[in-house]
Structure formats: structure tokens, C-alpha cells
Specification:
The structure holds two protein chains of two kinds.
Chain A: E1 4-7, E2 10-14, E3 19-25, E4 32-38, E5 45-51, E6 56-59, E7 62-67, E8 72-77, E9 86-93, E10 102-104, E11 108-113
Parallel strand pairs in A: 2-11
Antiparallel strand pairs in A: 1-3, 3-8, 4-5, 4-9, 6-7, 7-8, 9-10, 9-11
Chain B: E1 5-7, E2 10-13, E3 19-24, E4 31-37, E5 43-50, E6 53-56, E7 65-68, E8 75-79, E9 88-95, E10 104-105, E11 109-113
Parallel strand pairs in B: 2-11
Antiparallel strand pairs in B: 1-3, 3-8, 4-5, 4-9, 5-6, 7-8, 9-10, 9-11
The chains are: A mainly beta, B mainly beta.
Chain lengths: 114, 114
């Protein structure tokens, strides 16, 4: 089955700096890669996703890149703000199939220092 | 359209009791996933269900844990004879039929076994 690895487990940056979180996956059939943000005491919330037919996607200060050949994808947050502090999870799944269960990375705790 | 609803939000059980966690998916969603989050850890896949079917239960402990998603009503994750190690946050997510990708998470149920 799919195995997703995520690094780093913790990340501390100064407000205004960029943060990068990286994930690798094992199943070359995976074609959908969402990123979730989990704030304390809440459920994970989708912040951005990418499908395997594109290499990069941006949404304001957040971007995700995908390298299908190397089987890794990354989350980039620019101009970080204290409210970006949270745990971020990457995930991989196979869409357009009968079984689209999703496997998550272990999470990255991002701390943005003011 | 209400989001994914989980109840209860907090559940305290004594060792040996049963815990029942409920998840009502978003309207129109027929796929439900359950995840367990241990303290300071990521989301671990437990089980993937469609209406009246268990599709993938590879992440579910073989004993004491069971899940169902009946034709009518919420999905239920049931833990029999709970032990301290079952203390965790349990999240469910739902998504529409295959072909749609985004999974929405509930707020989670925090189970504490005393």
C-alpha cells in the first residue's frame, strides 16, 4: 500500500520568512496530493491540493510543487505569519478509482515566531 | 450544508467499557474514513467505508475495534473493552463518490480512558 513520509517533524521560522515542508510517497499510481492544516483542538482543514497532471499550484502565500518522477511533493508558505503556526499534514491518494482512501504523512509542527 | 459532524467531542470511559464514536458525513457524501491521532503523532488511517460496505480496514486493530456505515444514519466506530492505549483523538472524514477528491474532516472525538 501507499507509504507517505514527511519532513521535517518540527519547523520554526521567523515571521516573514518562508517555510518548506517535504513529502515523499511510494505508490506511483497516486495522483492526488492534498495538504491539511490542523490547529489546536480542531480537525484538519484542506488548504491546497494538487493533481498529478500539474507540477505546481499556487494560492496566495501557499504553493505546492510535485515531482512525479522522484515521487515527492512540497508545501511552500511565503511571508509566514504567526497564524500560520499549526500542524501540517501531507497526504496521497488515487482518485478516479473505486478505492480512494488517503494516507497521511506524520505531520510537521510549524511555529512562526513574531 | 453542514460539515462533517462527529459526536461526542469528548468521551471518557473506564477501562473495559465500550466506546461508540459517531460520524455524520456531509450531505451527499458516501465515503467515510476514520483516522486515529495519538498525542504528538500524525493521522493514522484506520478504516474506509462506503454505505453498508467496508472497503479497506487494513489500519484497524483486529480485536476490539469495529466500524460500520449503515444505509441510514451515521458511521459508527466502536471500541470494545477499552484500554488506556486507546486514548486518542479520532477523526472521521467524508468525500463524495469516486471522481471527487476533497475529503472534509470533522472536529474529532477525544477519547480518554481512565
Amino acid at each position: 500500500g501507499e507509504n507517505v513520509e514527511q519532513h521535517p517533524s518540527t519547523l520554526s521560522v521567523q515571521e516573514g520568512d518562508s517555510a518548506v515542508i517535504k513529502c515523499t510517497y511510494s505508490d506511483s499510481a497516486s495522483n492526488y496530493f492534498p495538504w491539511y492544516k490542523q490547529e489546536l483542538g480542531k480537525g484538519p482543514q484542506l488548504i491546497i491540493d494538487i493533481r498529478s497532471n500539474v507540477g505546481e499550484k499556487k494560492d496566495q502565500r501557499i504553493a505546492v510543487t510535485l515531482n512525479k518522477t522522484a515521487k515527492h511533493f512540497s508545501l511552500h508558505i511565503t511571508e509566514t505569519q504567526p497564524e500560520d503556526s499549526a500542524v501540517y499534514f501531507c497526504a496521497a491518494s488515487i482518485i478516479f478509482s473505486d478505492n480512494n482512501d488517503m494516507r497521511f504523512g506524520a505531520g510537521t509542527r510549524l511555529t512562526v515566531k513574531p | 450544508n453542514a460539515g462533517v459532524m462527529q459526536n461526542p467531542r469528548h468521551l471518557v470511559r473506564r477501562r473495559g467499557q465500550e466506546a461508540r464514536l459517531r460520524c455524520s458525513p456531509m450531505k451527499g457524501h458516501s465515503h467515510v474514513y476514520w483516522y486515529r491521532q495519538l498525542p504528538e503523532e500524525g493521522l493514522k488511517f484506520m478504516v474506509y467505508l462506503q454505505k453498508e460496505n467496508i472497503i479497506d480496514e487494513s489500519g484497524m486493530p483486529k480485536e476490539r475495534f469495529s466500524a460500520e456505515f449503515p444505509k441510514e444514519g451515521p458511521s459508527i466506530l466502536r471500541i470494545q473493552q477499552v484500554v488506556r492505549g486507546d486514548s486518542a483523538a479520532y477523526f472521521c472524514a467524508s468525500s463524495p463518490r469516486p471522481g471527487d477528491t476533497e475529503a472534509f474532516f470533522g472536529q474529532g472525538t477525544r477519547l480518554t480512558v481512565v
